[in-house]
């Protein structure tokens, strides 16, 4: 057994050993979003079939309006926001959970005075998002 | 497209529409632990290949000392605790992340004055834990 177990210590919404990255690299619409992969991509974490990511959206920012076939499991951990799910909108706050079901157009917005931060778990192998304009 | 997207509102560590259940049903050692499956088991959530669960351990309580081949992705969201990972122990606090790699014996304990609460994501299809005594 190769014990690669570990604890990633939290330091005010960054985590030891985890890089803060740009949300997207393509030229698609979004504003003020960063991403960190907390679990699933580091050396020794290959047994995960899913990735746990943390997204943070600055006040007034928003993620890309998009859809894809893989589902999202989201748990808010910071701030206030609004999520678009198809034709509906919901206000979200810490520890609210969001299920984005396959093919549903979705977008997250930060609506409070502090950043909106949420965990988002996805399959490691998944389809690429399609931008909705 | 069958839009089953939704938001589960948080109400002080219970969530609308989610049942608080016993941690284990077998006669194995543990103390003061409950579980809730937040995402992955409800109707319409079949697209998830993984489950997002919330475990809560009351002060002085602990989970079963066990091991299994499926990995755990844990994010603490409440309280203080200590996790055993093989031969090592780590103190954990809100938003610390824990990777429990395959086959590693592990146990969570609540060490503070409020309950220890953590999210734990696992594969939907997984092996059964083996109790370590």
Classification by helices and strands of chain A: mainly beta
Mean pLDDT of chain A: 95
Classify the oligomer.
homodimer
Total count of helical runs of at least 4 residues of chain A: 0
Strand content of chain A: over 45%
Which two chains touch over the largest interface?
A-B, 49 and 49 residues
End-to-end distance of chain A: 49 Å
The geometry of chain A reads as globular
- Strands of the largest sheet of chain A, in order across it? 2-3-4-11-6-9
Word description of this protein:
Two copies of one chain form a homodimer. Chain A has 133 residues and is mainly beta. Chain A has no helices and twelve strands. Chain A has strands at residues 6-8, 21-22, 31-39, 50-62, 66-67, 72-78, 81-85, 88-92, 97-100, 106-110, 116-123, 130-131. Chain A has a six-stranded antiparallel beta sheet, with no helix packed on it. In chain A, strands 8-7-10 form a three-stranded antiparallel beta sheet, with no helix packed on it. A two-stranded antiparallel ribbon of chain A has the order 5-12. At the A-B interface, β1, β6, β8, β9 and β11 of A face β1, β6, β8, β9 and β11 of B. β1 of chain A pairs antiparallel with β9 of chain B, so a sheet runs across the interface.
